[in-house]
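URGENT: need a sanity check before tomorrow's submission.

F., can you look over the 1-deoxy-D-xylulose-5-phosphate synthase record below? I want to be sure the sequence and structure line up before it goes out.
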Amino acid sequence: MQNTFLNTINSPEDLRRLKPDDLQKLAKELREFIINIVATKEGHLGASLGVVELTIALHYVFNTPEDQLIWDVGHQAYGHKILTGRKAIFHTNRQLGGISGFPKRDESEYDSFGVGHSSTSISAALGMAIASQLKGEIHKQHIAVIGDASIASGMAFEGLNHAGVTDANLLVILNDNAIGIDPSVGALKMYLTNVKKGTQKRNNIIKALNFDYSGPIDGHDLPMVISELNRLKHIKGPRFLHIITTKGKGLRQAEEDQVKYHAPGKFDSSTGELMPKAASKVPKYQDVFGHTIVELAKQNKTIVGITPAMPTGSSLKYMMDIMPERAFDVGIAEQHAVTMAAGMATQGLIPFCNIYSTFLQRAYDQIIHDVAIQNLPVIFCLDRAGLVGEDGATHHGIYDLSYLRCIPNLIIFAPRNEMELRNIMYTAQLGLNHPIAIRYPRGKGITENWKQPFETINIGTGVTLKSGDSIAVLSIGTIAKNITEAISNCNNAEAVAHYDLRFVKPLDETLLHHIFEKHGTLITIEDHSVIGGFGSAVLEFAASHNYKNPTNVLGIPDTIIEHGSVNELQQQIGLDVNSITTLLNTLL
Ligand SMILES: Cc1ncc(C[n+]2csc(CCOP(=O)(O)OP(=O)(O)O)c2C)c(N)n1
Ligand SMILES: CC(=O)[C@@H](O)[C@H](O)COP(=O)(O)O
Ligand SMILES: [Mg+2]
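Structure tokens as predicted:
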């Protein structure tokens, strides 16, 4: 393909010079460009393909970047990036040093608001619209584009509820493709389906919230979308446009298997077929969780599973398939997920509430107020803890230890491997009389032989992985793998001891006394922020017992970590095998 039109566009100003008849051809070129790059560089695919026409129409009709355009989540903004001056560098998307996979304010003036977590767009756009009013910028437009799964989140409703009593110059566009990462859920989804079928004409909830509602219209009908945006541009106050699109539009496989092609990994750009992955029986941690909860739930009828909109990503889908009445996808509703788990726990159920570490940030008050203060035995499984790689700054799960460690009643555990994850899940459902947070990372474990008989883990106990008389390395979680390798590579492996504390709370104080008394220099290592994390806990212990051992705290520094492979990011911050080896050699 020649990219006759796409190649002429370095900014939306070039786009606005195109004849309306040429825009359809541009849409075809843009779609193919996205497919070609994502096929080899990976990333989110389906969402961007679904909004190609909308993206062109928005930049064609509105005066971006003066007008503020906010993409909710931002995983659908690849077309936006390409049309706003980033075509030549789009191949660096999500790579170390390259552009971000999400809109980012310091990357482009066209990225009005940094995103990554869902359902923020309406509040942000409303904030900008109110600011414009206060500044007397009466012609400035503020547009939030939000998906059907994201608009069902509490935060989106909060924004709509406020906007409806303002006269802010706000346009909310609902991009309704009836799917999030997994099929959308909930009563709102049913309502939207009825709107599309034309059976819900009278009780329009958006109109009830004082928005000027229009739609639903076909979001792939470019002339119609342009015409409707042009009309809406001249209306004042909060407006709402409902468009219907197809996720993955333009790539057959992506339309047919929208879940897989949300972020498909590498695929053949001409056939759409996924590239075969190297066969490996080593499981992903999410699958260890997914299979283990099914195994446990078969034996223990009080177990229930909860995910806020991540059945596939968390692998709770296995339980949802087999025991749909006991496994719940509550939509993008982390706060609700946590409080619902608390409610279930009051009634004697054993809720496993699986939330990505980064998304649990949204439910912080619920953890304290609804779970910890009442000491309810909710089992939190925090997937994607630690560096997640290419999703970057908005998605790294590197703050959970700090934000959880200060909460009374909460037990915090980080498994070193698959067996430990299974065993702590087993132990937790036996009854701990406390809530517990179990954090584990994105990606694969370490062994094919992970499905071993369950063993109980004694709460608050660490383990000695290797003895040695000189330096002691203390770790929690799967970073132990790097440490084991680094110790075996260092100049005097015999001298180095390695302890896996396993519990960040309660700490194994007996083991810690032993470590501080036996060893001179200590190193703590964690895949987490150094502020307030595991190393901080060890330092607090040392201070309270007056130990003076020199202690190096290794982890994620107090700076925003961007995107790149996990290995590259570990190298950047000194958590990879070589950096740990070098540190050991320096200290030995
Ligand atoms: C707070 C939060 N929870 C979960 C996610 C993970 N997530 C990313 S995209 C997505 C689905 C979004 O669906 P929708 O809004 O319908 O947009 P579409 O992908 O269909 O364009 C989810 C659940 C997130 N980004 N933020
Ligand atoms: C955009 C978003 O938030 C999700 O699509 C996220 O990228 C999923 O991450 P995993 O690939 O780790 O499930
Ligand atoms: Mg959707």
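My own read: The CA atoms of residues 56 and 537 lie 51 Å apart. Residues 44, 73, 75, 181, 263, 313, 384, 388, 391, 442 surround 1-deoxy-D-xylulose-5-phosphate (ligand 2) (CB under 6 Å). If you see anything odd, call me.
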